[in-house]
Design a protein that fits this description.
- 51% of the residues lie in helices and 0% in strands.
- Helix 5 packs antiparallel against helix 6.
Length: 222
């Protein structure tokens, strides 16, 4: 009974009261038949919620599928909304995997859809499959870091002008102002690659995306 209460005297007293109301005599078998032995330490708005989702995230990041499955099911069996878990898996697929395995995001979004369509208890296997996939996938935080670096420059420099050669020129006046002048159409060049500046002049040469040497990012040349 003490173990089932997870150190909370209020839960222990409530459990005792429930058992006393259901049984003339509290016995080991009565406790085992009751729901109190299934109580898991979990608070959707408290510390344990964040502790366990952190453990799930870090287990997948460290490529440990067994731990990922354990923490995921701990959350589910404690009553967590499967869509919340699915959303965290979607986030993880881009934050910690990205282009190293582009399919990871597709798998995570598909798991969210499956949880939405089926709900519990059937959708548990979709979440487990996705957690295992994300755990085993090559890891990269290059997209996550790119977003942070670019956002830092946006915050620092504000609304920098779009280079004129990248602007559309639907009117004659805009063409006279040089909008679109000198723009190179990528499909007219070999491999559709063209050497022209795409960033504001103040950010010329700035880089945000630094691919890793893992997974699909091995093929990315910068």
């Amino acid at each position: 009974m003490i173990e089932s209460a997870n150190g909370d005297a209020r839960i222990l007293l409530n459990n005792l009261e429930d058992l006393a109301g259901q049984n003339k005599k509290i016995t080991k078998s009565a406790i085992e038949r009751s729901r109190v032995v299934k109580t898991l330490k979990y608070d959707k708005a408290g510390e344990e919620h964040y502790n366990i989702i952190s453990a799930l995230h870090k287990s997948m990041r460290d490529s440990d599928p067994d731990a990922a499955v354990y923490w995921l099911l701990r959350m589910l069996d404690a009553g967590e909304d499967p869509l919340y878990i699915a959303r965290r898996l979607v986030r993880f697929a881009s934050e910690d995997i990205g282009i190293a395995d582009p399919h990871a995001l597709l798998v995570a979004v598909a798991a969210y859809d499956a949880c939405h369509y089926l709900g519990l208890p059937e959708c548990d296997v979709h979440l487990v499959q996705t957690a295992v996939h994300l755990s085993l996938a090559p890891k990269s935080n290059a997209c996550y870091k790119a977003a942070r670096l670019a956002r830092a420059d946006i915050k620092k420099f504000g609304n920098l002008d779009v280079p004129r050669h990248l602007r559309n020129a639907p009117t004659r006046l805009m063409r006279e102002w040089g909008y679109g002048k000198g723009y190179k159409y990528a499909h007219d060049f070999e491999d559709a690659k063209v050497g022209q500046e795409h960033l504001p002049s103040k950010l010329r040469g700035r880089r945000y995306y630094f691919p890793t040497d893992r997974g699909l990012e091995k093929r990315v040349k910068r």
